[in-house]
Amino acid sequence: MTAQILDGAALSKRLRAEFKVRADELALQGHRPGLAVILVGENPASQVYVRNKIKACHEAGMISFDFPFPADVAPAIVLQKIAELNHDPAVHGILVQLPLPPQFDEAEVLAAIRPEKDVDGFHAANVGALMQGDPRFIPCTPYGVMKLLAETGVDLNGKEAVVIGRSNIVGKPMAMLLLHAGCTVTVCHSRTKDLNAHTRRADILVAAIGKPKFVTADMVKPGALVIDVGINRLPAEAGGGLCGDVDFEAVKPIAGAITPVPGGVGPMTIAMLLANTLTSAERFAEGTVK
Ligand SMILES: Nc1nc2c(c(=O)[nH]1)N[C@@H](CN(C=O)c1ccc(C(=O)N[C@@H](CCC(=O)O)C(=O)O)cc1)CN2
């Protein structure tokens, strides 16, 4: 058996072309979608992600408003900017790139974003709505994973799903989405005993732990859908480049489907950010949100 490769780069490109059509329609009605992007500091990976988000935004016919701040900025300055953006009618989505420098209370910053413009879906109100099965904005990475799983055509109802990782950005919302899709969900983490016993019975295995090639072939059930959320930068002495949390070459012959890194979940994260921004702009345009 060789796995279906879930090509997130191709799917993202397809979706972004569809978004452009919708964005242009909104622009004709005077509501071109606008995304405000706040980046604090010079974390090289964050700089790449933000650059890619802004580029994707422009290519999809949306406006970006870019706010870079130095690493030592006082949190009050960033909070003030968020307050302004909350009231700006040209801005339909606000994103604060994570992680933030240590002087910030991340929860305080995320709580300052108006939930109706929280296109990352990290505000407690949006997290709560997702928990209740009535999502307003779905966090971009898990949202992208659900789109990739849909590409396999596999009915998720009744399937065993195992998520490795319990972060607020990926692990927890991922578990919730899989639960709502009818899966029986297990969330594993650093304290989980006998991890392999859990992963080996997973029909859907999502790895989001940030450890290069952590998931090995012996951890995977034959035919499983394996989703790799990890993006690990290898040191030069290990050959450099990016690798995921899954040992791709070893797991590919066993899995039913698998995402590559790069080119799997990462590009879908950006596509779903645009999807959320577009949704927000449509809500403002139709008056569902004021
Ligand atoms: N405010 C947010 N901060 C962070 C999020 C998020 O969703 N919102 N997620 C991650 C980083 N992230 C988006 O911001 C992100 C990560 C990776 C990619 C991506 O396209 N990866 C490429 C490789 C790119 C490279 O060369 O490094 C791939 O996998 O093919 C996009 C977005 C943490 N912060």
From TrEMBL:
It catalyses: (6R)-5,10-methylene-5,6,7,8-tetrahydrofolate + NADP(+) = (6R)-5,10-methenyltetrahydrofolate + NADPH; (6R)-5,10-methenyltetrahydrofolate + H2O = (6R)-10-formyltetrahydrofolate + H(+). One of its GO terms (biological process) is methionine biosynthetic process. Residues 6-120 form the Tetrahydrofolate dehydrogenase/cyclohydrolase catalytic domain. Keywords: Amino-acid biosynthesis, Histidine biosynthesis, Hydrolase, Methionine biosynthesis, Multifunctional enzyme, NADP, One-carbon metabolism, Oxidoreductase, Purine biosynthesis. SUPFAM superfamilies: Aminoacid dehydrogenase-like, N-terminal domain, NAD(P)-binding Rossmann-fold domains. Residues 139-283 form the Tetrahydrofolate dehydrogenase/cyclohydrolase NAD(P)-binding domain. Pathway: One-carbon metabolism; tetrahydrofolate interconversion. NADP(+) binds at residues 165-167, 231. Its EC number is 1.5.1.5, 3.5.4.9. The keyword Transmembrane helix does not apply. GO terms for molecular function: methenyltetrahydrofolate cyclohydrolase activity; methylenetetrahydrofolate dehydrogenase (NADP+) activity. It comes from the Bacteria. Pfam families: THF_DHG_CYH (PF00763), THF_DHG_CYH_C (PF02882). One of its GO terms (cellular component) is cytosol. Catalyzes the oxidation of 5,10-methylenetetrahydrofolate to 5,10-methenyltetrahydrofolate and then the hydrolysis of 5,10-methenyltetrahydrofolate to 10-formyltetrahydrofolate. PANTHER family: C-1-TETRAHYDROFOLATE SYNTHASE, CYTOPLASMIC, C-1-TETRAHYDROFOLATE SYNTHASE, CYTOPLASMIC-RELATED. Belongs to the tetrahydrofolate dehydrogenase/cyclohydrolase family. Homodimer. This is Bifunctional protein FolD. It comes from Fluviibacter phosphoraccumulans. The gene is folD.
